[in-house]
Amino acid sequence: RLIMRVRSPYSLFAHLVLELRLPAVRMTQSSLYFVAANLLANAIPESFQVEVPKMLRFLDANGDGTLEAEEIEHFVYETTSHILMAAMNTYLVQYMLAIKRPPKGWRLAGSRRRAETKGISMLEKYWQITAPRA
Questions:
Q1: Alpha carbons 48 and 44: distance in angstroms, whole number
Q2: What is the pLDDT of residues 35-71, one digit of tens each?
Q3: Whole-model pTM above 0.85?
Q4: Is 111 helix (H, G, I), strand (E, B) or coil?
Q5: CA–CA gap between residue 112 and residue 134 (Å, rounded)
Q6: Residues 6 or more apart from 92 whose CB is under 8 A from it?
Q7: pLDDT (tens digit per residue) in 119-129
Q8: Where are the strands (E) in the chain, listed by range?
Q9: How is 59-95 classified by DSSP, letter by letter?
Q10: Is residue 35 a contact partner of residue 42, using CB atoms and an 8 Å limit?
C-alpha cells in the first residue's frame, strides 16, 4: 500500500522529489561556481603584489597601497560566499513555492474521487483547499 502511494503521480513523496530537480541542479551549479572562483583566487602566488592606483584603493583591504594575494583571496571568498548564500536561499524559497503548487495534470474533481476511494496525502488536501481560490 505504501509503495502504491509513493508511485502515485500525486503522492507527497513523488511531488517533493520531482519538484527538487531544478533547484538541486541550480544549487549544484552555484556551488561549483563558488569552488571554481575560490580555486582561481587561491592559485595566485603568495608573492604576488601590485601597486593600486588611487581610484582603486577600495580594493586594498589593509590600505598600504599594494594589493597582495592574501587580500585578493579574502575578497573573493567573502564576496562569493555572500553570493552563494543568496543563491541558495533563493533556490530554497523557489522550491518551497513550487511544492505548494499542484503538479501538471492535477484536477480538483479527480482528487476528490481519490479521497473518497483511496485516501490522499496532506499536500493534496492542501491543494483541494486552495484550488477553488486560484
A1: 7
A2: 999 999 999 999 999 999 988 888 888 889 999 999 9
A3: no
A4: helix
A5: 17
A6: 23
A7: 788 888 899 99
A8: 49-51, 66-68
A9: G-SS-SSEEEHHHHHHHHHHHHHHHHHHHHHHHHHHH
A10: no
